[in-house]
Amino acid sequence: MMEGVVHLPRWPAGRICLVDITPAAWEVPYHGASVTLCFREGFFEGDAGMTWLTEVTCRQGHLEESLDENGRPHLTISDRLFRSLMPVGRPVPLVLAGCHMNFLRRLMGGPHDRPPFNLCLYRGLRHLCPWVADFGLQLSAIELVPENIPLMTRSGPLARYACAETLLDVLLARLPVNRLVALSTATVPPPPEDEPLSGMSGWCNMTPDRVFTAEQEKET
Pairing relation of β-strands 13-23 and 5-8? Predict the structure, then answer.
């Protein structure tokens, strides 16, 4: 884990992998509980938003109990799910994006002391669209982009994923990626408890692994 504040330059382009993890049953997750991991990779360039490079991939797996850096038990996704998202021998994306991204990153396991950087949809929305602060992922997306309702109200994980894509587009239209990553370490209240994984340990912990500042456009 890096100490102190890390300065982020502007990134003219790069890859973002948008992820979401949904439990099969709306209950307190446990060792062996079934989950669905959905992810999709895209390319950002300047202010052009996302160009998606892949289709949405959904994989079924389960949660496993492991030990954190302090020797305490916590849940992570199974190794097979992690390898489908981060295959060995392939360059990692510059940024991982998702709702409550620090929590998802911990749930996915793997190293936290280097890129991919986290882009947290929830923290970004708390700062840039505070009127949806008390809403969960789906309600936030419907409030901000109601014309996408048919995609975002289907059943199953793909509806949640459509909401995440919508919110990523909203944030990318407001700030460049380096500033969204910096916002993803800002202190905010915990997300609503009506989200599928809110019963898990660590859901209310909004402490970031690192703190960033971001280079902004020069005044002309």
Answer: unpaired
